[in-house]
Design goal:
Blueprint: E1 4-12, H1 20-39, E2 46-50, H2 52-61, H3 64-74, E3 78-80, H4 95-113, E4 119-120, H5 131-135, E5 142-146, H6 147-152, E6 164-168, E7 171-178, H7 180-185, H8 191-203, E8 213-219, H9 229-235, H10 238-248, E9 253-255, H11 258-261, E10 268-269, H12 278-283, H13 287-302, H14 306-309, H15 321-324, H16 326-347, H17 353-361, H18 379-401, E11 407-412, E12 421-426, E13 429-434, E14 440-446, E15 451-452, H19 465-471, E16 517-518, E17 544-550, E18 554-565, E19 568-579, E20 584-593, E21 599-603, E22 606-609, E23 619-622, E24 635-636, E25 640-647, E26 652-675, E27 678-696, E28 701-712
Parallel strand pairs: 1-2, 1-8, 1-9, 2-3, 4-5, 5-7, 6-10
Antiparallel strand pairs: 6-7, 11-12, 12-13, 13-14, 14-15, 16-21, 17-18, 18-19, 19-20, 20-28, 21-27, 22-27, 23-25, 24-26, 25-26, 26-27, 26-28
């Protein structure tokens, strides 16, 4: 009889919006060879979790794998774990969507594997004390969370065994604590070292105690996708050695499926605080707090008391990413509004099957946050979320209005900041204007293409940027040498030299039609924060909504603000206009010089636009002379009254027109973030300064006009 039992839970995931070749490479390097390896060792049991985006890709591209999983389930070697189908963060969803996502996964597993899940994987192990009330009614009897969650609740044990029970309002669920030591050892420690560790663990169990059960739960991508792991796990035979260890040392350790382990009495009752794994709590904090957190950890380590007190050294919670990144909050709140529309449509009897699928896809957690992986910094993943929200809206528009053109303009606090924004929509576009954010256009979306062209992530300081600066003169570090590959938590690599020179901070949200004034002849530096050289303060000004007018055919939003340009007082009026049938909006300015001296400047409305691929030959500017520079172009463009951006993949043009000639200064907005492969520079969008020389006499005003619209390509 073994002296230890282990639950081996493997979580496999690819996010909504990831490229097909990424799925294929992960399948070839990791998912397929892992499954083949464990199939050859039928006495070693695993709990496996595959998320919906990955299952859908496998079903379409590698369907034989689903049959193999069904066979392993039928012979009792694997237990399929459920969860939210598209890997949503359940704690920030309406109950109806959280339960619907779990039900969809259960139905898929039942239909394709002949096994309905009894327990679930919780995305990023983000726990909220209210979740038992949401999860348990779906039929889920257990989930798995990090041991750090338990330590944060005050449990004194250094190592946790078995499972615990918690509840909310009398609705219980079991929780298996994931052992951090195993999570960091598998698959990185050499097999002899791992065997010795298991022996030591077995010796630590008191004589006569019930058979102890440890839980391992972590990402399947550690077994072939993370840097260096494919060669280590398969080429050097780590996985085969691990499976043989589990088979040959039956006297030491046995594997058990969580549903079977649940038959043992619970180790106790526990009430866990809102939490995720330790690293997530660190990543969710602002950079300055991350630095202080790191200083405290180092201080406690120097004093040799960190392990004693680490349970009480905690960072933030996952929801803090909505405060850290307003771009994430925008997508999340737009998704919630779409969820409400789906519910309302269903209540009036509409068929919302397709709309609900797009809604669920828009809830995939990965692009809502950023830590060790690219996540939010990957514009294609953010685009996948916004695209699915827009598809929900287009489907429900068709259900409500048929093919009729409609127009609405409403004041609504859609981003949940207790301040009203203005949301304008017709059947062709969606526009959102935030008076408090410099009177900026925070969303402009093409409904026909399901494409938001204003989703540009600002450049901001991250807690790990100091590491890149320190590396600049020291060269990359690959983590510990010898033995297995370095964990990506230990890697410090840069994908190109000189990345530190691109570390700039914008200090404002990258909206569009932000109002700037520059000195005549001003030329922006090659790399600088976006506000460089601005003589005014209108980008940081709260505009006042002076008028919101709408009828069946047209709508307009008028904002006003006052402020200095240099030392001259200026009043600014900005009027956004829309029509019922056009995929176009107008922006009319009136600039009034309230000084006793003339105002001479470059008026430079700032637009931040994205077509996703900065150096893609199918996404480019079109100049009046026919030239087509790519979107990574940096510098001045010649005088013009019309500038076109072309998106061949999505088949549309975005045309910017003006009532008088302007010269555009353009540059790419490129962020520096870390990913599993190291530090990288990522194109987020392009900044366009539409520079018009203005001369305004004292007490006089000047009118300027622009328009932005979509046409098919």
């Amino acid at each position: 009889m073994p002296r230890l039992q282990i639950i081996l839970a493997i979580h496999n995931h690819q996010p909504v919006g990831n490229f097909g070749h990424v799925f294929a490479e992960a399948y070839d390097r990791c998912y397929r060879p892992f499954l083949d390896a464990i199939a050859a060792h039928p006495n070693v049991r695993f709990a496996l979790h595959y998320t919906g985006p990955l299952l859908e890709w496998i079903l379409e591209n590698r369907p034989a794998m689903l049959a193999d999983l069904r066979d392993l389930a039928a012979r009792g070697q694997i237990e399929l774990l459920g969860g939210g189908f598209y890997e949503p963060m359940l704690a920030v969803l309406p109950d109806r969507d959280a339960r619907g996502q779990i039900a969809r996964m259960a139905q898929f597993c039942d239909g394709h594997f002949g096994q309905r899940p009894a327990g679930m994987w919780l995305a990023e192990r983000v726990w909220d004390p209210d979740l038992p009330r949401v999860i348990a009614p779906t039929g889920m009897r257990f989930t798995l969370l990090d041991d750090s969650h338990f330590f944060a609740a005050g449990l004194p044990a250094q190592r946790l065994w078995g499972h615990y029970v918690t509840e909310k309002a009398g609705v219980p669920i079991a929780i298996f604590p994931i052992d951090k030591g195993l999570r960091y050892a598998i698959p990185f420690k050499p097999i002899p070292d791992l065997a010795r560790e298991l022996e030591e663990t077995a010796r630590s169990v008191p004589a006569g105690a019930p058979l102890p059960c440890l839980t391992y739960g972590d990402d399947g991508e550690k077994f072939g996708v993370w840097p260096g792991t494919a060669d280590w796990v398969y080429g050097h035979g780590w996985l085969e050695g691990f499976l043989r260890l589990l088979e040959d040392r039956g006297d030491l350790v046995g594997t058990v499926l969580p549903s079977r382990a649940l038959e043992a009495p619970a180790a106790g009752r526990v009430y866990l605080p809102t939490a995720s794994y330790e690293e997530m709590g660190e990543w969710a904090m602002p950079p300055e707090s991350i630095h202080r957190y790191g200083e405290l950890v180092e201080k406690l380590k120097r004093e040799n008391v960190y392990e004693r007190y680490r349970a009480f050294v905690r960072g933030g919670i996952w929801q803090a990413f909505f405060a850290k990144y307003p771009e994430s909050n925008h997508i999340h709140k737009r998704m919630l509004a779409a969820s409400t529309r789906v519910e309302e449509a269903e209540e009036r009897g509409a068929d919302v099957t397709d709309a609900r699928t797009h809604l669920y896809r828009s809830q995939c957690n990965c692009a809502y946050w950023h830590g060790l992986f690219g996540g939010l910094y990957l514009n294609t993943l953010r685009h996948a979320l916004t695209s699915n929200v827009l598809r929900v809206e287009a489907l429900l528009d068709r259900d409500e209005h048929g093919e009729r053109d409609v127009l609405s303009a409403e004041r609504v606090d859609f981003d949940a900041d207790m301040r009203e924004e203005i949301l304008v929509r017709n059947r062709k576009l969606v526009a959102a204007i935030d008076p408090d954010d410099g009177g900026g256009l925070v969303e402009l979306s093409n409904l026909a293409a399901a494409y938001c062209v204003t989703d540009v992530l600002a450049r901001r300081e991250e807690g790990y940027h100091d590491k890149l600066r320190a590396m600049a003169g020291a060269g990359p570090s690959g983590g510990p040498s010898g033995g297995g590959p370095a964990s990506i938590h230990d890697l410090a690599l840069a994908k190109e030299p000189g990345l530190e020179r691109w570390l700039v901070v914008d200090g404002y949200r990258r909206a569009s039609f932000l109002d700037r004034f520059h000195a005549p002849g001003f030329t922006p530096p090659e790399i600088a924060p976006g506000g460089e050289g601005d003589l005014g303060g209108f980008v940081a000004t709260r505009y006042r909504l002076a008028a919101l007018e709408a009828d069946a055919g047209a709508a307009s939003v008028t904002l006003v603000a006052q402020g200095p340009v240099g030392d001259l007082p200026v009043a600014l009026e900005k009027r956004f206009s829309f029509t019922r049938a056009e995929a176009r909006m107008g922006v009319a300015y009136r600039i009034e010089n309230r000084a006793t001296r003339p105002l001479s400047a470059l008026f430079s409305p700032e637009l931040n636009l994205t077509l996703l691929g900065g150096d893609d030959p199918d996404r480019f500017y079109v100049l009046p002379d026919g030239a087509t520079p790519r979107l990574v172009h940096r510098g001045a463009l010649p005088a013009m009254t019309r500038l076109r951006l072309t998106e061949r993949w999505a088949r549309f043009h975005l045309d910017i027109e003006a009532g008088r000639p302007f010269t555009a200064w353009v540059y790419p907005v490129e962020t520096i973030s870390q990913s599993e492969g190291g530090f990288e520079r990522t194109y987020q969008g392009s900044c366009l300064l539409l520079r018009t020389p203005i001369e305004i006499a004292p007490g006089a005003s000047l009118d300027l006009s622009f328009s932005v619209g979509f046409t098919p390509a």
